[in-house]
Amino acid sequence: MASVSELYDVTWEEMRDKLRKWRDENYRNSEQIVDVGEELLNEHASKLGDDIWIIYEQVMIAALDCSRDDLAVSCLQELKRQFPGSHRVKRLAGMRLEALERYEDATKLYDSILQDDPTNTAARKRKMAMLKAQGKSPEAIRDLNEYLEQFVGDQEAWHELSELYINEHDYAKAAFCLEELMMTNPHNHLYCEQYAEVKYTQGGLDNLELSRKYFAQALKLNNRNMRALFGFYMSASHIAASPKVSAKVKKDNVRYAAWAASQINRAYQKSVMSQPLMSSFEEMASRGLFGPKNMC
Amino acid sequence: MASSFWKALVLVGLLALAHAAFSAAQHRSYMRLTEKENETLPIDIVLQTLLAFIVTCYGIVHIAGEFKDMDASAELKNKTFDTLRNRPSFYLFNHRGRVLSHSPDQASFIPCARALPANPVRLRKLEPLHH
Fold it and tell me: What range(s) does the EMC2 TPR-like domain occupy (chain A) (predicted)?
């Protein structure tokens, strides 16, 4: 099979920089990471310097995703040789055990890390991830709540908890978690949008109004967020279609929905290929499929 | 890394600044020796200081790398949920990737499981597959 550098005509520095970009921005394109990383480690290990250890870690996790246990074990051995007795490497060994579904062995390993160092957050998070993997959502939620009582600022954990609540259909608590995230990241349009979607799912007139407002906020932060635009259109149409609203609110929301529809049309018009998409959107909008009258 | 021209410019600016400082110190000691302590710095030293400062600043700006927008939300405009919803500390491994990806001991189990056939037309740039 042709090597990555031949296929794409890239140098080893570009491969290393790509790996760094994927690492920094949390990309989970594991097959590509394994291809690029494996070649980098096999051919250019000597040129990487100290970067090599973090690349070993990155490639190992990607190998676990692709069920490449051979690669994972070899990366783990290199890391163990360089950093014996390191908690971070032990955690990676635990992750490998998790990938092999040896959950009791992994739990023992994480417990030994926590005995040595009770403040080690990584091991605690892996234990919670194991509960999630085994389908024990209520225990995972309980543990995550206890964890967050101690480590209130951990954004990843709040986001994880919101997802767990959404899977359990406990939208009120999920909204609370997303509110925490929005408080600490006021400029992130994606959290606003996700919060608005949760509120929209909860339903009820108040929640729909709130969701419309947060969709608008997401649009203010990023006017290219199409999903927020669609959400704004739908929440406005639902409010307008509800029988319990006053005439003024109805009129306002019809105006908002019309504005959103025109923005959507304009955005799609810019892309030439979407003529069929546009016409189907208009057809559905005119048939009232976006604003059924029996909601709320 | 920045091109060597800008680095050279910063170096020249810093040297000129050091030279101007040295001349000012020398001028001061000369003034003290000749007891003419009320004379101000000669204008060429002042001009050299200011010019060297401007040149150094200009060069540093070019070495400093990419500027980010002042607007805090600007760098998030290109982010999508594809990357935002990945939480590395909570990654699970019990997903379809275990079976879908090519694995040496499962190759006989799944006859046509080959990850990423060498198809240069399909993959033009080294970008994540779902972009």
Answer: 90-199
Number of domains in chain B: 1
Tell me the domain boundaries of chain A.
Answer: 132-148+155-185, 187-271
Mutate to test the interface with A, among B66, B70, B71, B89 (most CBs of A within 10 A): B89
Identify the residue whose tokens are 């170096």: B11
The count of CB pairs under 8 A between chains A and B is 114
Cβ within 8 Å, pair A7-B123: yes
Any chain A CB within 8 A of the CB of B115? Answer: yes
Q: Looking at residue B125, what DSSP letter applies? A: S
The tens digit of pLDDT for each residue in B53-62 reads 999 999 999 8
Contact by Cβ (8 Å): A259, A202: no
Chain A hits for B99, Cβ within 8 Å: 67
A224-278, pLDDT tens digit by residue?
889 999 999 999 999 999 998 899 999 999 999 999 999 999 988 887 665 666 6
Q: Does domain A187-271 have CATH number 1.25.40?
A: yes
- The 3-state DSSP class for residue B73 equals coil
Cβ <8 Å between A15 and B126: yes
